[in-house]
Amino acid sequence: MFRKINIKIIILLTVVVVFVLFPGNKALAQQTIFNVPSADVTEKGMIFLQQEAQFSNKFGLFTEYAAYGIGKNTELDLTLIGIGTNNVANEVLGIGFKSFLPLHRKSETKLTFGTLIPVSLRGKGVGGYTYSHLSTRLPKTKTRLTSGVLIGTTTLFGRDVVCYIAGLEQPITKNFGLVADWHSGKHANGFLIPGFYYSFPRNTTLWVGYQIHNNKANGDNGFVIELSRIF
Q1: Which helix (H) or strand (E) holds 17?
Q2: How far apart (Å, rounded) are the C-alpha atoms in residues 6 and 35?
Q3: What are the tens digits of pLDDT across the range 54-70?
Q4: C-alpha span between 135 and 52 (Å, rounded)
Q5: What pLDDT shows up at residue 59?
Q6: pLDDT for 142
Q7: Running DSSP on this structure, what letter comes out for residue 115?
Q8: What is the CB neighbour count within 10 angstroms for residue 216?
Q9: N or C end of the chain, less CB within 10 A?
């Protein structure tokens, strides 16, 4: 048990050290809105890192995201979910990819699809997570709308689910914008999360939201705070 805990701490500290020390080269949007995968894909040779913390009345849930762009509109993804707390149903390492097919470049209309193989770090087996969505940006307001479907298993969601996913991204200024995403249904990700982002220098972005459950069984309402960086 002590060895397993040490491995998790080493992984977490490695991500944090890399996030803080390495300088950025090019600013890009995050690879999720909050919980819904965004239409953005990490460019070739770039690395995206994000620390997410969710705070409710009962616990803090911490998630680490990492993505590496391999070109051809595709990134490889690594996700650690539920690290540092025993108050969630599972602790998961997810390995997968995300890619998109451009349909109309001027309006940034894309068909995005991806998958993640979640492996339980508590001995609860291997699951599945697959999604696809269509997104476009409105010409005058620059609003990006996202709509699609997600299929997931018990390892991540507490039950096998097929749900609708949606997102909204609205830039207000060069550095500030409003965002929201939603998973339909009764499961661990069944929340509406409205919020905002603010971009700092060196390709660092802060995201703050408030998650509102679809059903009390999904979990408590609470704050979501994310810090992302691309280098």
Answers
A1: helix 2-21
A2: 27
A3: 887 766 778 899 999 99
A4: 24
A5: 62
A6: 96
A7: E
A8: 9
A9: N
Q: How many other C-beta atoms lie within 10 A of the C-beta of residue 51?
A: 17
Q: What token pair was written down for 154?
A: 């018990």
Two structure tokens written together for 18: 């890399």
| Rg of the chain in Å (alpha carbons) | 17
Cα–Cα dist 77/116, whole Å: 8
Give the tokens for residue 52.
């997410």
Range of the domain at 47: 2-230
> Contact, 226 vs 50, CB < 8 A?
yes
Q: What is the CB neighbour count within 10 angstroms for residue 10?
A: 10
Give the 3-state DSSP-derived string for 126-167, with helices as H, strands as E and coil as C. Answer: ECCEEEEEEEEECCCCCCEEEEEEEEECHHHHCCCEEEEEEE
Spatial separation of the C-alpha atoms in residues 156 and 91, rounded to whole Å: 9
Chain segment 79-94, per-residue pLDDT in tens:
998 776 656 667 899 9
Name the percent of the chain in helix, strand, coil, to the closest 5.
Answer: 10, 55, 35
How many domains, the chain?
1
At 157, which CATH number?
A: 2.40.160.40
**Both tokens assigned to 24:** 């950025």
pLDDT for 156 equals: 86
Exposure of 39 by Cβ count < 10 A (0-12 exposed, 13-18 middle, 19+ buried)?
buried
What phi, psi does 185 have (nearest 5°)?
A: 100, 180
